[in-house]
Design goal:
Layout lengths: L1 H28 L1 H20 L1 H12 L8 H8 L4 E5 L2 E5 L1 H6 L11 H4 L5 H4 L5 E5 L2 E9 L6 E8 L1 H12 L2 E8 L2 H5 L4 H20 L4 E4 L4 E7 H9 L3 H7 L2 E2 L2 E2 L2 E7 L4 H17 L4 E5 L5 E5 L10 H17 L2 E5 L6 H16 L4 E4 L8 H9 L6 E2 L1 H7 L4 E6 L10 H6 L2 E6 L13 E4 L6 H9 L11 H14 L9 H12 L4 H7 L4 H12 L2 E3 L2 E6 L9 H9 L7 E7 L4 E7 L5 H6 L4 E2 L3 E6 L4 H22 L1
Parallel strand pairs: 11-12, 14-15, 14-17, 15-16, 17-18, 18-19, 21-22
Antiparallel strand pairs: 1-2, 1-5, 3-4, 4-5, 6-8, 6-11, 7-8, 9-10, 12-13, 20-21, 22-23, 23-25, 24-25
The structure holds the ligand Nc1ncnc2c1ncn2[C@@H]1O[C@H](COP(=O)(O)O[C@H]2[C@@H](O)[C@H](n3cnc4c(N)ncnc43)O[C@@H]2COP(=O)(O)O)[C@@H](O)[C@H]1O and manganese (II) ion.
The ligand Nc1ncnc2c1ncn2[C@@H]1O[C@H](COP(=O)(O)O[C@H]2[C@@H](O)[C@H](n3cnc4c(N)ncnc43)O[C@@H]2COP(=O)(O)O)[C@@H](O)[C@H]1O binds next to helix 15, helix 20, helix 24, strand 24 and strand 25.
């Protein structure tokens, strides 16, 4: 077909050249005849131009073959109510009346390029079983076709007008419900000690922000209590709220007084099949937002995934001693009802995990229950603490996970400390084999957390798990049931680790817990000794610190120059880097042989949790980490820098 087109083009060009040549020759022989022939030529050209569409149609008929004319195929396609188009290569050579009336309606398109006539037209996509969605003249079609997708063969395309179906489907999706559970985190704090008129002015400001938030939508917002709201909005508006990264969090944070700023926690359920399902998802999402420290939005989608927005401010301590007392009573009851207790922390346990486990062990001893701490002593960062207990004749308190598993019965209680996600446990097998599980943890809520615990004591506002356990100890047993000095020092070590010696996250309750442990005989100099390392590890740590480069207020180290058993020197180097002037956050990445481990720290101005989440890790605002497989150190450094870039960009936008 292409060849035929070229032949026609050549013949037309040759004839035109002959005409021009003859006219010129005539002009040389007779100027009068020349003028006549020019006039005839002009009239001829005008006639051709006036009939160009008819000629195109004629040529098109010639091109798609005389055999096709008047054929039964042609008649069946011509009369078909479905718009049909025939192409030769990229050129439109035929279409039926339904196509002219319903697809390209403005003029004729014979011998025109289909790509110009129908932008986006793709023969390969059209030939797929699901066809190609196309928009032509404001109408929506799905085009199906067959034939030679490219080249010079014939290609037949059918156009199904599904404008109504698609617009209604879009409208259906855009009007799906999204449910939002909203909590004003700091309501009581900011209103504390205010005069009635001041309270009215401040709550008026809060209401105005909420009104502006919902007014731009077709949804509604209901106040459930002074600090709790429920909103329902259409998916089209929810998508805008998400695209705007929940700007309402920032608007609200602009309100405040000397007591603090107003922060929100928002849980969103979207994509559920019913209102009830979305509401349930929203509740779970709010739980997650609060569990991560508040001042953020958590969005739960139908596939069970979470997305988080915000979370830039420091969390406000929101705990009550009443809750501690209730938990202590409930824990006492369940320990009493069990035959034995196994306590375990997270993998690569540290002083907070083992310190808290030792505290819980004391609670079990108060109730006279056989109990032990399951720990993998080959992979622990709390070796100095466990050794100290062994040297004091208390080695039997520590057993291997395999031994614990062997002794597990239906009535064994498993108490998990310092983590709340199954994949970080010292032993997933012990957890899975347990009938009764209790969780005590202070980490920000993570996706996929343990959901079958009889007691889930989760306090993201606590500095450490040891702080929580030290409080529980004060409410169990009789007056004389007290932790020993050795146990108190173990718990104080956990608090000092997670607060970096009371610098980070140390609230009133932290100091109260520390004071209690001091009263129980804990000596800080003994605790400090648990942190002491060898000269070799000190030198390695100093080397790591010296390799730091500064980038956008952050110190970054990427090194393979660490001893095989580098243990605590990596997090310690990250801690030390924060003492350098101008460093707001530190990131130390090392090759652990098989994977890259990153320790990230900040003093609170930078949320390292958000940055580490971009690398697949997590943690807290001031202390986070990530582990990466199949990636080089250099690449890790690039990823860290990119995550810092994005964080700084978001920070700048929020300011
Ligand atoms: N992949 C991850 N997902 C979620 N959360 C993660 C992930 N990887 C790490 N995290 C959390 O991030 C923080 C920080 O972890 P880190 O490894 O950098 O630091 C922990 C210990 O290695 C470190 N540590 C232990 N002993 C000492 C010591 N003697 N001196 C200094 N530092 C030490 O302290 C961190 C303790 O963290 P904790 O268990 O959370 O209390 C951490 O939360 C990870 O869970
Ligand atoms: Mn820990």
């Amino acid at each position: 077909m292409k060849k035929r087109l070229i032949t026609v083009d050549i013949i037309v060009a040759v004839l035109a050249l002959i005409c021009v040549g003859l006219t010129v020759a005539l002009g040389l022989v007779s100027p009068t005849l020349f003028l006549i022939s020019v006039a005839v030529l002009s009239v001829f050209t005008i006639v051709i131009l006036l009939n160009i569409q008819r000629m195109r149609r004629l040529i098109a008929r010639l091109l798609h073959g005389a055999g096709y004319e008047d054929s039964s195929t042609q008649h069946s396609l011509a009369n078909l109510a479905v718009p049909v188009l025939i192409l030769s290569g990229k050129n439109i050579v035929w279409y039926n009346d339904a196509f002219a009336a319903g697809v390209l309606t403005d003029r004729e398109y014979y011998l025109q390029s289909v790509y110009k006539a129908i932008p986006g037209f793709d023969p390969e996509k059209i030939a797929r079983p699901e066809g190609q969605p196309l928009e032509v003249e404001g109408r929506l079609f799905t085009a199906f076709g067959s034939g030679v997708a490219r080249g010079d063969g014939l290609f037949v395309a059918y156009f199904i007008n599904d404008t109504v179906l698609k617009t209604e489907a879009m409208e259906y999706r855009a009007t799906r419900p999204a449910v939002l559970h909203i909590m004003v985190d700091t309501y009581d704090e900011v209103l504390k000690d205010l005069k009635d008129s001041e309270k009215a002015a401040l709550t008026g400001e809060i209401d105005r922000v909420f009104e502006n938030f919902i007014d731009g939508t077709t949804g509604f917002l209901l106040r459930l209590s002074s600090s709790r709201y429920l909103a329902v909005m259409e998916e089209r508006h929810m998508a805008e709220v998400v695209a705007g990264k929940f700007a309402v969090l920032d608007r609200m944070r602009e309100i405040g007084n000397e007591n603090g700023v107003v922060t929100l926690s928002i849980g969103v359920g979207r994509g559920g099949a019913t209102f009830a399902e979305c509401e349930k998802m929203a509740r779970a999402a709010l739980d997650m937002a609060l569990g991560r420290g508040g001042d953020q939005a958590a969005v739960r989608s139908a596939d069970g995934g979470f997305e988080f927005y915000g979370g830039v401010s420091r969390s406000v301590e929101k705990r009550t001693k009443v809750k501690s007392r209730i938990i202590a009573n409930a824990l006492g009851d369940i320990i009493r009802q069990s035959d034995s207790v196994v306590i375990m922390g997270h993998r690569m346990s540290d002083l907070d995990a083992i310190g808290a486990a030792i505290g819980v062990l004391r609670i079990c001893k108060i109730f006279d229950k056989p109990a032990a701490v399951a720990v993998d002593e080959k992979h622990t960062l709390a070796g100095s603490l466990i050794d100290r207990f062994r040297r004091s004749g208390l080695g039997e308190d520590f057993i291997t996970p395999a031994e614990a598993l062997e002794g597990l019965t239906r009535r064994t209680l498993v108490i998990i400390v310092d983590t709340h996600v199954p994949h970080l446990l010292e032993s997933g097998e012990i957890y899975r084999a347990a009938n009764n599980v209790v969780v005590i943890d202070h980490h920000r809520k993570m996706v996929g957390h343990i959901d079958n615990a009889v007691i889930f004591y989760h306090e993201p506002y606590a500095s450490s798990t040891c702080e929580l356990v030290a409080e529980l100890l004060q409410y169990v047993g009789e007056r004389e049931d007290r932790p020993t000095a050795l146990e108190s020092e173990a718990m104080l070590a956990g608090i000092m680790l997670d607060t970096r010696d009371f610098v980070i996250n140390a609230g009133v309750r932290t100091f109260e817990a520390a004071a209690y442990l001091r009263r129980m005989g804990a000596q800080t100099q003994n605790v400090k000794r648990l942190f002491a390392g060898s000269l070799e590890s000190y030198t390695s740590k100093a080397r790591l610190v010296s390799e730091a480069v500064l980038y956008k207020g952050c110190a970054i180290v990427a090194s393979d120059d660490v001893p095989a058993d580098s243990g605590v020197i990596v997090p310690q180097a990250a801690n030390d880097l924060l003492s350098i002037e101008g460093v707001q956050a530190s990131f130390v990445a090392v090759d652990m042989g098989g994977f890259i481990s990153v320790s990230a720290r900040s003093l609170g101005e930078v949320n390292v949790q958000v940055i580490m989440e971009k690398l697949g890790g997590g943690g807290h605002l001031t202390m986070a980490g990530a582990q990466m497989k199949d990636v080089s150190l250099d690449k890790t450094k690039v990823y860290i820098m990119a995550a810092i870039d994005e964080y700084r960009k978001n920070q700048a936008e929020e300011e």
